[in-house]
Amino acid sequence: MVKHIILWKLKSEHNNDTVKADIKSELEKLIGKIPGLLEINVQCESLPSSNADVMLYSVFENEAALKTYATHPDHVYVADTFVRPFTETRLCLDFEV
After folding, report:
1. What's the confidence (pLDDT) of residue 31?
2. Which of 57, 61, 44, 38 is nearest to 10 (CA)?
3. What confidence score (pLDDT) does residue 88 get?
4. Which residues contact 44 (CB under 8 A, 6 or more apart)?
5. Nearest C-alpha neighbor of 23 from the set 5, 41, 49
6. What is the residue range of 12's domain?
7. What is the C-alpha radius of gyration for the chain, rounded to an integer number of angstroms?
8. Are the beta carbons of 65 and 30 closer than 8 angstroms?
9. In angstroms, how far is CA 57 from the centroid of its own chain?
10. Cβ neighbours, 10 Å, residue 20
11. Predicted local distance difference test score (pLDDT) of residue 22
């Protein structure tokens, strides 16, 4: 299994509940649409001590499934429409368990 964790810092002009809710909703809708994507959860509620605004936690069957997800048209659409235009910084950690 592969875990894929992303942290985003939103652009200050887009750091609002609507943008966060859209990111969460659209990414979580990908479950069942992409082969090998086993779990996906987006967290938008954070403590004041946090320095990221949104977190994506996802689990894949294997590394090949993660690579499929990265280029899958449904994921690319969500990323290009609901995520990338609103984010300033992205950090990623992928690891096998």
Report:
1. 98
2. 44
3. 97
4. 17, 20, 21, 23, 24, 53, 54
5. 41
6. 2-96
7. 13
8. no
9. 7
10. 21
11. 98
pLDDT at site 36:
98
CATH, residue 15 = 3.30.70.100
pLDDT for res 78: 98
Average pLDDT per 10 consecutive residues for the chain, totaling 97 residues: 98 96 98 98 96 98 98 98 98 98
DSSP-assigned beta bridge partners for residue 21: none
CA dihedral 11→14→17→20, nearest 10 degrees, is -60
Token reading at 91: 């950090």
Q: Which residues pair with 13 in a beta bridge?
A: none
Local structure of residue 34 (DSSP, 8 states): S
What confidence score (pLDDT) does residue 60 get?
98
Q: Please report where in the chains the tokens 């096998």 appear, as a residue.
A: 96
The residue type at 75:
H
In the chain, the number of structural domains is: 1
State the pLDDT at residue 63. 98
